[in-house]
Design a protein that fits this description.
The chain has 561 residues and is α/β, with parallel strands linked by helices. It is 58% helix and 6% strand. The mean pLDDT is 90. The chain crosses the membrane at residues 21-40, 97-118, 172-190, 196-229, 241-262, 274-294, 306-325, 331-351, 358-378, 406-425, 437-459.
Length: 561
């Protein structure tokens, strides 16, 4: 017997967000951050370096590495996707842009699977709104579409998705695979064929992306759900059990064959730092998710009947536990966002008008202030007025010369105008659509991200890429230095040298004299062993990173025998 639902929704409140607006919003969000920038430091540059090495046949597909350097991030699938993109697309395209194409598709897939998962959950009997005495309650399909739109808006609004969702690393592959598993578990009743495909590919992709343990746990929990679920609509239960079991064993077997199982003791946690991270990473969706758990608390007493709550709550719990056991807090926390967005969507039919108004005003003030700050800093850097922001940028980024680019400026103006139109629409008395409370948070997050990736992109590239430091390095070495040896540099640094220069970069594990020039970042180790190598190498210059003087490369020249 199903318990009474707290959702009271009329048919007039479940009108869908226009598809053109939804597609435009998602497309702008996906493209911003992938287009127009250089590969950024560390994880982004490391992934690109390995993708390029795989595409050029310079390393093994099963054990990719550059020289003696092995990758620091888990998984293989992210490297394969970028390498396949380089090999399949025209050779005259810039490969740093080409490798981002599969990841644009993955981010779009994550948004699509989240929409489909919530659409399936909202059609379940326990999720339906209260039936009115004289009719007029929301139709199940329209109600499901409205909640699915709200879930996508909640996911777009999450601050933690902005940067990590636009990097060519294993985190985005894991996010898309988790969303696929979420979609499969939520649509066994409604889209059996598509759910079957997602049920197999999701865990396998999650395992190949470096999270086989999480993939096996999610598949195992879905098998338990199939065994314990109390719903008359679930047909072919034993076929589903066999299919999910096959996906589980394929994932575990592939991970074992490719040596992707890695066990490590749980790291020590700074709980205060973790609390701050949890607070802002999934903001503003997590308060709505908690509101859902409170308003639907009676239904939580029947988890095997109220699958629209137990499925996203179980996914949230498992991914949050994975974050606590993993050393990569941000990457693991990213996987909690689809479940949080789904739970936030189920808060929409139960929100009070006063709470919705509070969300609107807080969002309006926060994102308007952020947008004005971005514009003022850009204006100061371009014109010198006001003077203080430009002085701060000059102090933090030595040698930066701000360019003016007409196309990004026009896109930023269009995004700001769209924000003003959205605010004007929301401040009117639009009380019908239940997703209206998430329109401003999603629009504000997209606005801030677009402004950062247009107006501030040259500054971010200057601070976050290796190009400025390598430009300084090129003024130290001869125009054609030939062979350049590296010692103590990370894979990302070696890859950046190979990408931004035509030098023959030779990464080694010891500074034995192989080339005429040597670049090292291990200053402490070099000073400790300077006496042993003083007869072989002559220090020439310390090359500083313009935005961080503690990041230095020491350039040495081999002494003539």
């Amino acid at each position: 017997m199903l318990l009474p639902t707290p959702a009271i929704v009329a048919q007039s409140a479940v009108r869908r967000l226009p598809r053109s607006i939804m597609l435009l919003l998602c497309s702008v969000y996906v493209l911003a951050g992938f287009i127009g920038r250089s590969p950024w430091r560390e994880a982004d540059m490391q992934a690109f370096s390995l993708m390029r090495a795989l595409a050029l046949g310079q390393t093994s597909w099963l054990h990719p590495q550059i020289g003696p350097l092995s990758p620091t991030e888990p998984g293989l699938l992210q490297y394969w996707l970028g390498a396949w993109a380089i090999q399949l697309l025209p050779a005259d395209w810039s490969s740093d842009w080409v490798v981002r194409l599969p990841f644009m598709a993955l981010l779009a897939l994550a948004l699509t699977c989240t929409w489909g998962a919530v659409h399936g959950l909202a059609r379940m009997p326990g999720a339906q709104p209260v039936s009115f005495a004289f009719g007029g309650e929301a139709h199940p399909r329209d109600y499901a579409c409205a909640l699915a739109d709200g879930a996508v808006l909640a996911l777009l609004a999450c601050l933690g998705l902005t940067q990590m969702g636009h990097e060519t690393t294993h985190t985005l592959v894991q996010l898309s695979a988790t969303c696929a598993v979420f979609y499969a578990a939520s649509n066994l009743w409604w889209q059996p064929r598509r759910a079957a495909v997602a049920a197999f590919l999701g865990p396998v992709a999650l395992g190949l992306a470096g999270a086989p343990a999480l993939a096996v746990v999610l598949a195992g929990l879905t098998i338990a759900l199939l065994c314990l679920a109390r719903t008359p609509r679930l047909t072919h239960r034993y076929s589903w059990l066999a299919w999910w079991t096959l996906a589980l064993f394929c994932t575990a077997g592939l991970a074992a064959a490719l040596q992707l199982w890695h066990w490590a003791p749980p790291p020590q946690r700074d709980w205060a730092s973790m609390a701050r991270l949890l607070t802002w990473f999934s903001w503003p969706a997590w308060p709505l998710a908690l509101w859902t758990l409170w308003r639907w608390r009676r239904q939580l007493a029947q988890p095997w009947r109220q699958l629209h709550l137990s499925i996203p709550l179980g996914l949230w719990s498992i991914t949050l536990l994975a974050m606590l056991l993993n050393t990569e807090r941000d990457a693991s926390l990213l996987l909690t966002l689809p479940a949080i967005a789904a739970l936030a969507a189920f808060a929409l039919p139960t929100l009070r008008r006063s709470l919705g108004a509070l969300i609107d005003w807080l969002t309006l003030i926060f994102f308007t202030v952020c947008a004005l700050t971005i514009w003022i800093v850009w204006l100061s850097v371009q014109t010198g007025f006001p003077a203080k922001p430009a002085a701060n940028v000059a102090r933090l980024s030595d040698g930066y010369l701000p360019p003016f680019e007409a196309l990004p400026f026009g896109i930023a103006l269009a995004a700001s105008a769209a924000w003003l139109l959205l605010v004007a629409w929301r401040t009117r008395r639009h009380r019908a659509a239940i997703w209206k409370s998430l329109a401003l948070p999603a629009g504000g997050t997209v606005l801030g991200w677009v402004l950062l990736m247009t107006l501030w992109l040259p500054m971010l590239d200057y601070g976050r890429s290796y190009a400025p430091q390598i430009t300084r390095l090129q003024t130290t070495l001869p125009a054609q230095p030939g062979c350049v040896q590296t010692w103590g540099l990370s894979m990302a640094q070696v890859g950046a040298l190979r990408w931004h220069t035509d030098w023959n970069i030779v990464p080694t594990s010891s500074p034995a004299p192989q080339c005429a020039w040597l670049i090292t970042a291990s200053h402490t180790e070099w000073q400790a062993n300077s006496n042993a190598y003083a007869a072989q190498w002559l220090p020439v210059r310390n090359v500083l990173r313009p935005t961080n003087r503690d990041d230095q490369w020491l350039v040495l020249q081999r002494r003539n025998p």
